[in-house]
């Protein structure tokens, strides 16, 4: 199994370190030629979504990645990665991949003084540490369209949605790559095994 | 400062990695920087090149001006206070700045003591010329380090010197026997625990950016290849002929710092680069402030 980690800006090294410590091999996606290589799952890391989104466009990676995700490529988006996946971004006209049926609010907890650490239940895996850095939250889950499965809420903190799953897409508002707990990444890897077993 | 808050502050710096932090003096410039792909902006009244030209005492910016920039962009906003001026830092914390740069670019307010940064909830970034300075700032509570370079000159030589110096000192600490670390801590005037951390991990305990004199995509890629985790660009952008284009080019060069074909393309038609000042022509060495 090979995981591609978007490496245009942000905390991509942290995801790679974690996945490699779990025995999974990783590759960095820095430009369009990297997309020609084979990989089984995709991680969109934390960082600044405006920067990552702009670079995805300029480096001609946005469309190909969107197509891959639509075709069923399993993806884990954390913080900025969740924003890249979102179908709607509150108070902004611009969206990026737009494959995940949620509306997100950027910088939803305010500036850096609003950043926090907590522990909370995640459906199916139990209580885990959660680190929120100038984080977004998911304001609402958008209604399912046609025959596609709806978006499942995996976790909430203080009544706000902070983790969802939609088919093979997992969107997380916090940073599982920064804490020692491996269960979110474990859940992602499991979804990859299932995805390719189905195929 | 609670341990938890310090972790969160170091983690914000981790999110900025691979990015470019740009100096801006107006909301308009801040928007241009954000559009061009800045991962954060540094709000200040005058960019270092103008501070250098104007001379005199240079202080923290007007909070109103900083707030204008906070309102203009959605990315993190940083601002500078004078070395040792903890009340300027308190003011910046009061307006909920995302990062304070305790900066040698401004006139130092204290020629002996730096700010006790552990007393603050908001994070600090500090400049350093070598490993000793970097670890002393971390010991005082800085959650991010940048090279000092020589701000406002458009000359990258000193940022290069500081980054190489830090790297070679880190390599030396890594190669030491553990019983030699105590003496090294004494020589560098830093806590043993921090030297021990560097020995174990081969890196600083916080994110390390390059700053000071970076003016072109090639300069930015040079600093990345030398091991910087991201880049500050001060005067280099808004003192140049085509700020928008140059800013966007530097952002791409930082992401693909090993791709020389791309950087060649990015370096085309950028217009006039900022007029530099050579090291020998500098009257005021800002890097000598605060050790």
The multimeric state of the shown protein is heterodimer
Shape of chain A: globular
**Beta content of chain A:** 25-35%
In what order do the strands lie side by side in the largest sheet of chain B?
A: 7-6-5-4-3-2-1-8
Report the CATH C-level class of chain A. Alpha Beta
Biggest sheet overview of chain B = 8 strands, parallel
| Residue fraction in strands of chain B | 5-15%
The largest sheet of chain A, given as strand count, sense and whether it forms a barrel, is: 7 strands, mixed
Count of the domains of chain A = 1
Can you describe this structure in just a few lines?
Chain A has about 200 residues and is α/β, with parallel strands linked by helices.
Question: Your description of this structure?
Answer:
The complex is a heterodimer of chains A (199) and B (291). By secondary structure, chain A is an alpha/beta fold. Chain A has one domain: 3-Layer(aba) Sandwich (Rossmann fold), CATH 3.40.50.880. Chain A contains 5 helices and 12 strands. In chain A, the strands form 3 sheets. In chain A, strands 2-1-3-4-12-11-10 form a 7-stranded mixed beta sheet. Chain A is globular and about 40 Å long. The two termini of chain A are 15 Å apart. Chain B is α/β, with parallel strands linked by helices. Chain B is 44% helix and 12% strand. Chain B has 13 helices and 8 strands. In chain B, helix 5 links the parallel strand 3 and strand 4. In chain B, helix 7 packs across helix 9, helix 8 crosses helix 9 and helix 10 packs parallel to helix 12. Chain B is globular, with a radius of gyration of 18 Å. The model of chain B has no long low-confidence stretch (mean pLDDT 94). The chains are: A alpha/beta (199), B alpha/beta (291). The interface between A and B is large, with 35 and 39 residues.
